C-alpha cells in the first residue's frame, strides 16, 4: 500500500506539469535562462523587452520577469496581464512564452516564480500550498500596478495549468482583475485529493495520513519528506497511463528543462492541497471569463467542470483547441497561436 500511495503522489505531482513552444531551448545559452522557442535573447530599443525584477511579498523575495511591448513609453498607459505559471513550472518556461507573446500584442505582462519555488525565496523549498499560490497572484498584481505605464483599470489575469486553478480562486475576490483567462486549467486540489480523472478515490484517507505524518515529522525537526520526485526511464515514461503524464515528463525533464523547475513538493503540503478545490465559491467570479483547453486533453474535464460552475458571470466562453492535448497547448506552434488569438481578442474586448 505504501508504494501505491507514493506512486499515486508522484502521479498527482506529475500531472501538474505544462508545456511551451516547439524547439526546446537550452537555459545555459539564454542570458535570461528562458527555455521556450523564440525567447528573447537581448533587449533592443523599439522591440519587446524583458526586465528581471525582485520584490517583497510577505517578507520573501519574489523573482519575476516583466515584459514590455515594442516602443514602450513609461508615460503612456498600457493594458496589463498577470500570468500565473503551472505547478512545478517556473517563469522561464510556458508562462514566459505566453507573457512574451502577449507583450508582442501590446500588453505589459508579468510572470513570477511562486514563493518557495523557482528563484523566489522561502524555506523549506518546494512548499506548494494553495493559499501561497493565490497570494502570489495577488502579489504580482500589487507589484505590477505600481509599474510605470500600467493602466490599473485594464488589468487582466491569465493562469496556465495549475496556475489556472489558482487564478480562478484569486479572481473570486480580487476585483482589480477586470477579466480572467485560463489555458489548460488544472484543479490541483481535486487531483491531489481524488487522483487524476478521479482515479485514486480509494486511497484518500491513507494519503491524508501520510501527509499528516510528514507534517508531524517536520514539526519535530525531522527530515522534510517530498512527493512527486522521481527519475523515470524512457520505458517507464512510455507506460504512464495518461498523455499528460507522458508528455509532461518529456517537457519538464527533457525538452524544456530548467534547473529551478521540479516535480516535487513537500508531502505536508497535501494537508492544504487535498482540502482545496479551484471551483469552491467560483460563482464569486463576476468578471468576463475565457477558458481554453485542448479538445483531446485528458484534463479537459476540469475546465468543463469549472466552466459550468462559474455561474456568477454572464460573459464567459469555453474555447477548445481542436486536436490539442494538455501539454501540446503549450508548445505546438499552431496550438499556441490559436490560444494567443483567442486571448488577444478576449483581452482587447474586456480590457
Automatic annotation (TrEMBL):
Which of UniProt's keywords are assigned here?
Hydrolase, Signal
User: Which protein is depicted?
Assistant: Alpha/beta hydrolase
Q: Signal as a keyword?
A: yes
> What SUPFAM superfamilies does the record tag this protein with?
alpha/beta-Hydrolases (SSF53474)
Is-annotated flag, keyword Cell membrane? no
Judging by the UniProt lineage, the source's domain of life is Bacteria
Q: What is the lineage of its organism?
A: Bacteria, Pseudomonadati, Pseudomonadota, Gammaproteobacteria, Pseudomonadales
Stretch forming the signal peptide: 1-24
Q: Which residues form the Xaa-Pro dipeptidyl-peptidase-like domain?
A: 59-256
Q: Name one GO molecular function term.
A: hydrolase activity
Amino acid at each position: 500500500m505504501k508504494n501505491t500511495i507514493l506512486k499515486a503522489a508522484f502521479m498527482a505531482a506529475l500531472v501538474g506539469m505544462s508545456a511551451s513552444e516547439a524547439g526546446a531551448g537550452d537555459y545555459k545559452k539564454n542570458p535570461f535562462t528562458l527555455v521556450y522557442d523564440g525567447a528573447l535573447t537581448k533587449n533592443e530599443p523599439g522591440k519587446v523587452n524583458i526586465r528581471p525584477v525582485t520584490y517583497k511579498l510577505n517578507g520573501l523575495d519574489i523573482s519575476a520577469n516583466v515584459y514590455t511591448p515594442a516602443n514602450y513609453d513609461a508615460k503612456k498607459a498600457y493594458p496589463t496581464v498577470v500570468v500565473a505559471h503551472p505547478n512545478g513550472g517556473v517563469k522561464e518556461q510556458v508562462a514566459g512564452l505566453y507573457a512574451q507573446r502577449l507583450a508582442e500584442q501590446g500588453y505589459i505582462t508579468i510572470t513570477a516564480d511562486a514563493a518557495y519555488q523557482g528563484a523566489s525565496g522561502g524555506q523549506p523549498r518546494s512548499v506548494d500550498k494553495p493559499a501561497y499560490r493565490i497570494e502570489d497572484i495577488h502579489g504580482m498584481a500589487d507589484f505590477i500596478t505600481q509599474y510605470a505605464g500600467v493602466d490599473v483599470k485594464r488589468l487582466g489575469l491569465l493562469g496556465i495549468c495549475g496556475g489556472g486553478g489558482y487564478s480562478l480562486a484569486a479572481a473570486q475576490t480580487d476585483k482589480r482583475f477586470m477579466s480572467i483567462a485560463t489555458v489548460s486549467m488544472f484543479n490541483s486540489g481535486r487531483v491531489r485529493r481524488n487522483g487524476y480523472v478521479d482515479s485514486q478515490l480509494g486511497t484518500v484517507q491513507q494519503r491524508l495520513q501520510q501527509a499528516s505524518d510528514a507534517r508531524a515529522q517536520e514539526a519535530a525537526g525531522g527530515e522534510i519528506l517530498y512527493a512527486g520526485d522521481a527519475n523515470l526511464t524512457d520505458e517507464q515514461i512510455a507506460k504512464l497511463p495518461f498523455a499528460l503524464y507522458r508528455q509532461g515528463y518529456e517537457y519538464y525533464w527533457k525538452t524544456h528543462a530548467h534547473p529551478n523547475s521540479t516535480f516535487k513538493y513537500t508531502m505536508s503540503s497535501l494537508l492544504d492541497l487535498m482540502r482545496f478545490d479551484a471551483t469552491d465559491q467560483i460563482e464569486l467570479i463576476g468578471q468576463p471569463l475565457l477558458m481554453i483547453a485542448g479538445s483531446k486533453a485528458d484534463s479537459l474535464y476540469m475546465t468543463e467542470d469549472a466552466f459550468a460552475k462559474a455561474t456568477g458571470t454572464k460573459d464567459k466562453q469555453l474555447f477548445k483547441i481542436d486536436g490539442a492535448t494538455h501539454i501540446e497547448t503549450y508548445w505546438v506552434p499552431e496550438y499556441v497561436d490559436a490560444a494567443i488569438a483567442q486571448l488577444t481578442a478576449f483581452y482587447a474586448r474586456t480590457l
